[in-house]
Write a structure and sequence with these properties.
The protein has one helix at about 35-40; strands at about 10, 20-25, 30, 45-50, 55-60, 65, 70-75, 80-85, 95, 110-115. It is mainly beta. It has one domain (about 10-115): Metal Binding Protein, Guanine Nucleotide Exchange Factor, Chain A. The chain is globular. The structure holds zinc ion (2 copies).
Length: about 140
């Protein structure tokens, strides 16, 4: 595919110290309702776009918090914006927060996951598939 037609997504934190660029289409986009994301972001649900590591160029210093035995969450140490998620069970992949994109409307979610943990007052009128935990793999 010629470079000019390859989609690219740019984003960053609230203060601008962290900027990133993801080239090419994401592998998936989704809204996570799990308790870990909810607490880490202090938000009722979190939208993620998954890319391969090679697609993502990170600029600026991020701080990484090991939120579980397998998971690591990257955020701006100055303003606190959550930027990425990596985990041992998704080697070579990185989730970027759609909310930190400059143009988040360009990456709408494809499904919901960990919907079994969703808040009772959080209902999206999008008709997208709801997966109780992780979506079926393959
Ligand atoms: Zn910042
Ligand atoms: Zn989650």
């Amino acid at each position: 595919m010629p470079e000019s037609t390859t989609p690219a997504y740019e984003g960053g934190c609230q203060c601008g110290a962290v900027r990133y660029r993801a080239s090419g289409a994401p592998l998936m986009t989704a809204i996570c309702h799990c308790r870990m994301c909810r607490r880490a972001h202090a938000a009722p649900a979190v939208a993620w776009a998954m890319f391969s590591e090679e697609q993502v160029r990170m600029g600026g210093e991020t701080q990484v918090y090991p939120s579980s035995a397998e998971g690591r969450r990257g955020f701006c140490p100055r303003c606190g914006t959550q930027i990425f998620f990596r985990a041992d069970y998704i080697p070579g992949l990185v989730d970027l927060t759609i909310g930190s994109l400059d143009q988040p409307d360009t990456l709408p979610p494809q499904f919901h996951y960990w919907h079994a943990e969703h808040l009772s007052w959080v209902e999206f009128a999008d008709g997208l598939p709801r997966h109780a935990a992780f979506p079926p793999q393959g």
